[in-house]
Each structure stands twice: as C-alpha cells, then as structure tokens.
Amino acid sequence: MKNSTTILKVAVALLFLGAFLTRCANIMTPDGGPKDTLPPIITVLTPNNFTTNFTEKKIYIEFNEYVQIKDQHKELFTSPQMKKLPLVSTRGKGIVITIRDTLKENTTYAIDFGSAIRDNNEGNPLNAMRYVFSTGPTVDSLMCSGYTADSYKADSVSRTFLWFYIADSLPDTPDYDSTIFNRKPDVIARAQNNGIFIAQNLKPVAYRIYAIGDKNDNQLYEPGSDLVGILDTVYNPATMPPFGIWFDSLRHYPSADPQLYFRMFTDQTFKAQRLVEAQRPDCKKITLFFNTANPRIDSLRLDSIPSDKIIYDPRTKGKDTVNLWLNVDEKLLPDTIKGSITYYRHDSIRQYLPTTEPIKVAWKRIESKEEQKEREKEERERKKAEEEGREYTPPQKPNPFKYRASVTGEMNPEQGFDITIDYPLVAFDSTAVKLYKLEGDEKNPKTTEVEKHFVRDTLNIGRYFVRAAWDKASKYRFYIPKGAMTDIMGFQNDSISSDIATFDPEKYSKLVITVKGEKGKQYIIQQTDNSGKTQQEIKGVKSGKHLINYVAPGEIRIRVIEDTNGNGLWDAGNVVERLQPERAEMYINDTGEDIFATKANWDIELDIDMSKVFKPMTMENLIKMLEDKEASRLKKLFEEWQKRQLENQKQQNGQSQGGMMGGMGGMGGMMGGLGGMMGGSGGFSGNSGSSGQLF
C-alpha cells in the first residue's frame, strides 16, 4: 500500500508539474517574444480534485489563459463509463463540466480529458488532465501499468482503452468468456501514443482486464474491427510489484515501467453461418453472399443448366462470397434462373446442419448511357458513309480480355511469376505459349526455348503460376500468341510479349540465419522492410542454417513467428475462448539493434536463439525490450535530425564558421535532450520511488 501511495503522489505531481513550470516561464516571456509552446495552467478547481462525498452537478476549472475544447468525442471519457457523457463548455478562462448522469453510490469517478483542453491561441494541449472525485468517503488510490502491442507487428498500439472488471463480480466460465460483450467495465484507462498505460483509481481487488482498440470511439467492442488484448489470469494492483513512473519530456506525457503486457489482435467472433443473398450481376455470373467465410456447399442445382457447366469460384477477399460462372452460350440463358442450394448453416442452438434453400436470380441487358451514345454515334457515321457512297468501317474497340502479370522487368528466380485473368478460362492452349532465354546481342539476341509449365492457384481459378528452371542474372521473353486463351465470356487474348530479367545476386544481399530452435517447435522467419511489411519468408523453420537470397540493398527487419500449430501461418487469438495469438516478435540482436543495413553483394549473418526471442515476458524482460526499442527510436530520431542539419549546412554555403559552430552547439543541445530522455527512461529499471528524482 505504501508503494501504491507513492505512485499516486507521483501521478498527481506530474499532473501539475507542467502547470508549475509553465507559470515560471510565462513570467519571463516578453511581448512579441518566441512562439508560445506551453500548455494552459490550472489556477482554480471547484470543487477540488479528489473531493469525497461528491454531490455536485457542475465542476468549474479555470486556467491562466483562454482555452478551447477540441475533439471532445474522441478524447474525453469517464471511468467508470457514464450513460451520458458530461457536457463540457467554455466560460471565460475556464470550462464548466455538467454531470448529466445519476452517479453510483460509494464509487470513485474520473473524467479524463486526454488532450481535449488546449490554449486558445496556439492550440497547445494540456495532456493527461484528469478530474477525480468519489461519491463515497474515500477515493480509490491504487494504480497499475502496462504495455499494449500489436501481436503480429510487434509494435506499440496507441490510444488503447483498458477495461477493468472486478473479478469476483464475474461468472467463472472458462469455456466461453462474454464479459466484454455483456458488461460495462468498473474502471477505464487509456494508453498513450507509445502504448504505455497508467491505470489509476483502482481498488485492492483482483481484476479481469481487457485491452480494446476502440476504432470508432464508441466505447463498444466490435469484433472484426477493433483490436483486442486479453490476459491469462486476473491481477490485483495491491499485490503487483512496484513500477517506475516519469514524465516523458519528448512526448509530453507521463510514462511508466509496464507491469502487464497485452498482445492485441483482431478477433473474428462467432457468427451463425447463413446465405444472405444471391445476385446475378452479369449474364453468365451468379454471386452467392454468405455472412461468414468459407461456406460449405453440398450441392447446387440450376434449372436447364447442366452441373458440369457451372464453375465455382470462391476467390473473394473475405472468403465469404462464391461466384458461379455459367459456361453456356449467352443466347441459351433465360432472363431468370431458378434452382436450389444445399449448404451447411447454423441453427438457433449453433448446430451446423445441412439446409436447402431456393435460388431465383434475374438479369437483363441494360444499355448504359455511354453505350447508348457510342451506338448512336456509330449509327450516324454509318448513315453518313452510305449517303456518300463509302464503305463504313466500325471503330476498333479495346479488347475486353484482361490479363495481368505479377512482375514486369526484374524477377526473383526463386519465386517466379504468375498471370491473372479476370474471367475463368474455358480454353487454354498452354503449348502455344513460349518462354525463351535471351543471350548475346540485346538488339538481336539468341533465343533458346525453355521448358515451362502452368499451375493454377487453388484459391483463385483465374491465377496461373509460371514454373521454370530460372537462371540467375538472365533475360527471358514470355510470349502468348493471339487466341491462346478464351475466357467464359468468349473473349480471347491479343498477342502478349513480356521481357523479364532475373535478379543478379551481386546486386543483392544474402541473409544467412543460424537458428537455435526449441525441441518439437517450428517457426516462420520473415524478412520485412523498415515498416514491417513482409518481403520474403521461410516456413517450417527448425534448428540449423537457413538462407534468404536476393535481399534488396537498404534497411530490413526480421520477424519471427512461433508457429504453434505448424500450419505455416500466423494465427490470431480468440476472446471468447481466451486463446492468445501465436507469438510474433521482431528480432533484436545482442547489441539492441532491430534494423539491419544491407548492401549489394553482402552476406549478412544472424544468429537467432528462439529461447531468447520467445522468452517469458516478465516485467523485467518487458522493460528491457522497451528500453531497447526506445534507444533505437531515439537513435533514429537523432540520425534524422543530424541528416537535416547536414542538408541545411549545404544550403547555407555563405554561412560563417562561427555560424557553423553555433549549429554544432545546437547538436550538443540535441544530444543533451536525448541524454535527458534516456536518463528519464532510467525509470524502466527502477521503482516508483525513483521517479521522485524528477522533482
């Protein structure tokens, strides 16, 4: 309890620290001086903060300058949630908060303004402002901290809400957890932009805690849209270890050592599967819309259309839509097609049973305005030609056959390329397609035919992979003669010729990764760009050496996934089943680096010990990880600043040596600021008492 009290005092002091310092600075600032960058200062609170036995309906907070309220609906929230948010309005140099809800007895309330309060002239925000009161005789005073991260990107998730539920008030249902769907939280907190949260005004009881990425700012959890994080057990702030807290002078808000760690994911909650709608957007196309992915269809019958003339195409992005292509002459297709479908659907008690439903879809060709204008134009031109005794030649229209290749120019020989056609093919003379290797003179090269074959994508019937024994640093010509492909609409391709060059390994780096895995486990290693976008990956990784060739020069990162079920994919968690997502971490070497520079014709050797990458995320390990990330971030900030300084120096060729030295002095100031930040982050390894050094 003593530690918790200390933490609370620190938090309160931090709340008013900015106001204290700002007041001193404003006294020294003359009119017409530098731009105001300081937030408003609280001068009056009525009633006082942390008032007990609270019965008021209005709260007045006055500042040293006129203020404005910005993004109130996004920034302001209450803990616990009120049915009606307080109404906040400006009055003079202050704000009036009107309580519009009936408050619970013996309850500690907090009104968190986020960064909604800003000065009127420059818009400087007063961050982390909270007004706390209790309708009972005491104010709940315990605290806890934590960190919210994207479980796949392994990076912080900003502005996440933390929902605290008193565990004793919840039913213990290990097989189905519906807490966040059916209950309002007892306490609400919010993480800062760096993913760190400091939850305040907690009771000395066990809580079940959830992290919610409230995308719509509606204080509701929406599966499939909002990120969510869960914990495997309950936590009592009174029995948790102490944590450090300090003011982040670069970000301008409080930060802390995290006690809790949330790996957030997008949960696809249960939906009772059913056929929503059937449409016929084209003469030869029927689309079946389901409300969930991967529908199971047992049989389909369409009147007057043989079953072998129906092509199934489940290639939609959400996997919840099935396209049926009708390989029948358009003239033989009726305007209205009737039939039936037998598929598996969930009944009222979630049983997955076959059901048969009728299908009725209609289509009629309707001429668009553009088509009408084009037709009328052709008719006028034809009539004019006849009057003049000329033979009319219709204008050539673009070929509706659509073809796309996954690569143009250079290609990774280990990956090859693929082609995609918009409509399913009903005829494909693959023997007519040629692949040539080009050698010698570029203008008149020697051509050698190369054996190739096509493999159709099992998930996209219009996509074909081109397989061949590709040589490195070589040139090829891919040729498809006219009419080699005919799609279901009767369209045929024009002749297609594409020149392709395979990567020259001397222009790329090679990653040599030595893995020390854990027995019985396998992993996925991904090479990503600096932003975390996957460029190449290796699946089924176990102990031993693994190669990633053709790594483009630049900066890369390495993501490692613990493939628990061995399916070669990263799998998210499940809220109702309390199932955590598979762990995914960005690799950090022993010197704290997570970004690696690559150059042409380089071999980069990395040693990855999976027991270190996926070590248990204790508070100490979590602090160390965040220390490394913060050091990397600050290093990058400084390097970017240094780059800008050098660019400015180049633009200032007439600057004196003295001016240049002044710039170096500014660099020293920057280093001092970064050093101060790193000094502040020393709280990562301290306890709550260490933060007192800030004052």
What does this structure look like?
Helix content is 17%, strand content 36%. Strand 16 (245-248) and strand 17 (253-256) form a beta hairpin. The protein folds into five domains: 1-139, Immunoglobulin-like; 140-265 and 619-639 and 657-690, no CATH class; 275-362, Immunoglobulin-like (Sandwich), CATH 2.60.40; 403-505, Immunoglobulin-like (Sandwich), CATH 2.60.40; 508-571 and 587-616, Immunoglobulin-like. It is of the alpha+beta class and 695 residues long. Mean pLDDT is 86; it is low at 1-31 and 657-695.
What is the number of beta strands?
Answer: 44
Structural Rg = 33 Å
Overall number of structural domains: 5
Structural class of the secondary elements? alpha+beta
Largest sheet composition: 7 strands, mixed
- How far apart are the termini? 22 Å
- Unreliable spans are 1-31, 657-695
Q: What's the pLDDT, averaged over the residues?
A: 86
The geometry reads as globular
How much strand? 35-45%
Total number of helices: 7
- Kindly report the spatial arrangement of strands forming the biggest sheet: 12-11-14-15-18-10-13
Helix content range: 10-25%
